[in-house]
Specification:
transmembrane, transport, Guanidinium exporter, Small_drug/metabolite_transptr, 78% helix, 106 residues, Small_multidrug_res, single chain, mainly alpha
Amino acid sequence: MAWIALFVAGLLEVVWAFSMKLSDGFSKPVPTVVTLVTMIGSFALLSFAMRSLPLGTAYTIWTGIGAVGAFVVGIVVLGETLSVARVLAAVLIVSGLLLMKFSSPG
C-alpha cells in the first residue's frame, strides 16, 4: 500500500507543479487552489508512505516522479523543447528510481 500511496503522491506532485505554472505567480485563483489542494494531498500521501518506507527511498522516488512527470507535461502540454540531452537526463532519473525501488525494503 505504501508504494501505491507514494506513486499517487508523485502524480499529485506533477499536478501541483503544473497548476503552479498555470497560476501565474499565484495570481489566478483556480490554479492556485488546485496547487494548494494537490500539494496537501501529495504531502499527506508521502507522509503515509514514509511510515513504512525508508526516508531516502520515499523522498527520492517522490521527487523523481515529480521531475520526470513535469518534464513530460512540459513537453506534451506546454510545448517545451525536446532534446536528446533532456531525454537522456529523464532516462537517467527513471533508471535511478528503478534502482532505488528494487534495492529498498518494503
